[in-house]
Amino acid sequence: MNAWMQRTCRIAAASLVALLTQTAWAAPVYYAYSYTGNGVASAGIMTVDGVLAGGHYTITDMQGSRNASSIDSMLAAGVLGGNDNRLYPGGPYVDTAGFSFTTGSEQFNVGNAAVACGSASLYGESPTGTCGDLVGVSLEVALFTPVAGASYFSYSYTGNGVASAGIFSTSGSAGGPYTIEGILGQRNGQDITALLAVGALGGNDNLLYPNEPYVNFAGFSYSVGAEHFNVGNANVACGTTAIYGESPTGTCGDLVSLAMNVTALRLSVPEPQSGLLVGLALMAAVISRRRRT
Fold it and tell me: For the segment 156-181, what is each residue's pLDDT rounded down to a tens digit?
């Protein structure tokens, strides 16, 4: 290999390393979370710092829904309940200090209630960060990788004896309506197992609107194990005072009125880097030329 080829190969290798480093830094690390409890439902996306130290990441941002409100922001460490905003992906997902966030004028802390308060529930939510007003919740956390071309929304709703929260993956043009293609979350502490096909329950069309009302009378339907549920615009379909309702049969007879929130999630999807491909091609060309000489 002559001096020119050696120099070119070194430059290409250095460029490739730099591009790989930039790609790694450019990709945020997301975790999807959901939790439900008595009168409480929340779901959304946590952004973490990507540095696993002592078995935990630090949560740097949070977006999503809680009951009928959108989450506004994370609270800085130490603001509520001594929160340290740590996430342990191996579980238990939070320590006693937990993480804290705001919805409008309200603040909430979610931590390990079993250790901190002797709760029967492993996790708990409190508006003061203390044990006195703790609500036991079932918390699920999973690594989340958004896909290019998809739009994501968090949802949460509560009603009499009902609490559900999760994340929709959707397709469609900006402004909607969007078509719900997948759902991840829980209802009353049980994992949602599948989105039901269009027309499977209550004439569901699985359409989602980014502004209220979020669903039409047909709504969306999903399953939790062997149980099925339809969520639609009950005000239009059944004449209820509440806009939204959930039914296991998709009819008005067994409808539960709901308060609901849907929030658009702002997620970054790493794009393929053309420069990376150029660097690989250049190195391949140099190696090929070397073999011919």
Answer: 999 999 999 999 999 999 999 999 99
Where do the domains of the chain lie? Answer: 29-145, 147-266
Q: Are strands 151-159 and 135-144 parallel, antiparallel or unpaired?
A: unpaired
Look at residue 70 in the predicted model and tell me its pLDDT: 98
DSSP annotation of 84: -
Residue 268: per-residue pLDDT: 84
What number is the average pLDDT over the span 79-92?
97
Widest pairwise Cα distance in the chain: 83
DSSP class of residue 56 equals B
Q: What are the residues whose beta carbons fall under 8 Å from the beta carbon of 28, sequence distance 6 or more? A: 47, 50, 267, 268
pLDDT beyond 60 at 154: yes
In sequence order, what DSSP letters do the residues of 241-252 get, joined into one string?
A: SSSEEEESSSSS
Give me the residue label for tokens 């559900």.
164
Please give the DSSP secondary-structure letter assigned to residue 286: H
Residue pair 195/206 in contact (Cβ under 8 Å)? The answer is yes
Proportion of the chain above pLDDT 90, given as a percent: 81
Confidence (pTM): 0.85
> Looking at the chain, which runs of residues are DSSP E strands?
29-37, 40-48, 57-66, 69-70, 73-74, 86-87, 99-103, 106-112, 123-126, 135-144, 151-159, 162-171, 178-187, 190-191, 194-195, 207-208, 220-224, 227-233, 244-247, 256-264
Burial of 138 from C-beta contacts in 10 A (0-12 / 13-18 / 19+): middle
Number of residues in the chain:
293
Helical (H) or strand (E) element with 3: helix 3-26
